[in-house]
Amino acid sequence: MDKKSLGVTPAVYPSGVVLVTSGTVDGPKNIITLAWAGNCAADPPMAVIAVRPTRLSHKMIVESGEFVINIPNASQVWATDYCGQVSGRREDKFARCGFTAAPSGKVKSPSIKECPINIECVVRNTVRAGTHDVILGEIIAVNADPGALGPDGRIDTAKAGLIAYGHGSYYEIGQHIGDYGFSLEQKAK
0.85 cut: is pTM over it? Predict the structure, then answer.
């Protein structure tokens, strides 16, 4: 079967959807929803986010040099979508969504207490990439609710109820279908 050309469009989907916080717990703060976020290096551990320079969060992240990636769960999908639809210049997204701005352990940017996973980052580089700036952050702390962890002490995506985004829709992640390296342990089917 021949494949159909979809043209040139952002098409690396699905991707995790995150809530990035910036500012300070007691001062100005904001939440931005991003589907363009992920890991980009192991040593040192680095994360990448893509933010339009016109966004309030972009200004706050660049000025402070830090941010927190908060990973929401399926029960927070309404708030996740909402934080991507309204501007923090006009509305307190923490208050509207019932989120608590909790002190982070290593950065001044607040963590969202209700999110099962919080990843504290320090900005190491910013690169212009068309409509967005790619912001590289060194991960300096990762905190997770015990209920989001498996018996091995690692994040369990199904237990955490994590969500993904693809082409305008949100999806709950959950079915385990293999572990890294399992292909080397069994013959191809």
Answer: yes
